[in-house]
């Protein structure tokens, strides 16, 4: 199965998938890494021929960038498109084009803390638990059907960075588990509901 990855930054989630593929634990191929940042470190994790990046801020309209991104992704014929640390909203046209095979990992227990700065907000609220979610992408930010979540405790004295590191450690196996289900053809989205092996979860 062919995977296209969207990433804006470091790319440790991408690396977790690459490591699993190299270890024979994930039957998939990364066919492209796509970024809205020209110098995203994530790009360096794959060979040059698989890198695509543009400076999204240089485009006058969001849809101009997203249309070009969608064309570049479609050219790699992916079975699944995975947002792994992609920090930019995708427009409705992009989501419509890939809907049902478009996944995102988000560092919170959705529906709590959509958007950015999730760790600082969780600490400020004094919640006992935080974590990460993998979901199908819908047009509304971080609002698509949740496939799986992983939970960590929020500890006394936590800083946003300390909590982010604890969450990141569970993000990698969580994303791998969901991508493995995806490439095995075991998950699907139907009318905003996740189907596992054809049954609502
Ligand atoms: C992860 O916490 C991801 O959930 C969030 O941004 C971070 C990206 O990490 N959206 P990396 O680029 O995969 O290392």
From TrEMBL:
<dbReference type="Pfam" id="PF00551">
    <property type="entry name" value="Formyl_trans_N"/>
</dbReference>
<keyword id="KW-0658">Purine biosynthesis</keyword>
<feature type="binding site">
    <location>
        <begin position="87"/>
        <end position="90"/>
    </location>
    <ligand>
        <name>(6R)-10-formyltetrahydrofolate</name>
    </ligand>
</feature>
<comment type="function">
    <text>Catalyzes the transfer of a formyl group from 10-formyltetrahydrofolate to 5-phospho-ribosyl-glycinamide (GAR), producing 5-phospho-ribosyl-N-formylglycinamide (FGAR) and tetrahydrofolate.</text>
</comment>
<feature type="binding site">
    <location>
        <position position="62"/>
    </location>
    <ligand>
        <name>(6R)-10-formyltetrahydrofolate</name>
    </ligand>
</feature>
<feature type="site" description="Raises pKa of active site His">
    <location>
        <position position="142"/>
    </location>
</feature>
<feature type="binding site">
    <location>
        <begin position="11"/>
        <end position="13"/>
    </location>
    <ligand>
        <name>N(1)-(5-phospho-beta-D-ribosyl)glycinamide</name>
    </ligand>
</feature>
<protein>
    <recommendedName>
        <fullName>Phosphoribosylglycinamide formyltransferase</fullName>
        <ecNumber>2.1.2.2</ecNumber>
    </recommendedName>
</protein>
<keyword id="KW-0808">Transferase</keyword>
<feature type="active site" description="Proton donor">
    <location>
        <position position="106"/>
    </location>
</feature>
<dbReference type="InterPro" id="IPR036477">
    <property type="entry name" value="Formyl_transf_N_sf"/>
</dbReference>
<comment type="pathway">
    <text>Purine metabolism; IMP biosynthesis via de novo pathway; N(2)-formyl-N(1)-(5-phospho-D-ribosyl)glycinamide from N(1)-(5-phospho-D-ribosyl)glycinamide (10-formyl THF route): step 1/1.</text>
</comment>
<comment type="similarity">
    <text>Belongs to the GART family.</text>
</comment>
<feature type="domain" description="Formyl transferase N-terminal">
    <location>
        <begin position="2"/>
        <end position="179"/>
    </location>
</feature>
<dbReference type="InterPro" id="IPR004607">
    <property type="entry name" value="GART"/>
</dbReference>
<dbReference type="InterPro" id="IPR002376">
    <property type="entry name" value="Formyl_transf_N"/>
</dbReference>
<feature type="binding site">
    <location>
        <position position="104"/>
    </location>
    <ligand>
        <name>(6R)-10-formyltetrahydrofolate</name>
    </ligand>
</feature>
């Amino acid at each position: 199965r062919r995977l296209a990855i969207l990433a804006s930054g470091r790319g440790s989630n991408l690396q977790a998938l690459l490591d699993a593929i190299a270890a024979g634990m994930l039957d998939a191929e990364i066919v492209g890494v796509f970024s809205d940042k020209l110098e995203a470190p994530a790009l360096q994790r794959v060979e040059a021929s698989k890198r695509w990046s543009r400076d999204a801020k240089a485009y006058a309209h969001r849809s101009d960038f997203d249309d070009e991104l969608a064309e570049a992704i479609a050219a790699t014929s992916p079975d699944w498109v995975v947002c792994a640390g992609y920090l930019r909203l995708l427009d409705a046209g992009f989501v419509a084009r890939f809907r049902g095979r478009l996944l995102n990992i988000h560092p919170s227990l959705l529906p709590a803390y959509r958007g950015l700065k999730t760790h600082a907000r969780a600490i400020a609220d004094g919640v006992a638990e935080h974590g990460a979610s993998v979901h199908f992408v819908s047009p509304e930010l971080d609002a698509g059907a949740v496939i799986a979540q992983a939970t960590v405790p929020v500890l006394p004295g936590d800083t946003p960075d300390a909590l982010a590191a604890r969450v990141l450690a569970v993000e990698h196996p969580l994303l791998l588990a969901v991508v493995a289900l995806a490439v095995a053809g075991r998950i699907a989205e139907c009318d905003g509901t996740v189907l596992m092996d054809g049954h609502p979860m």
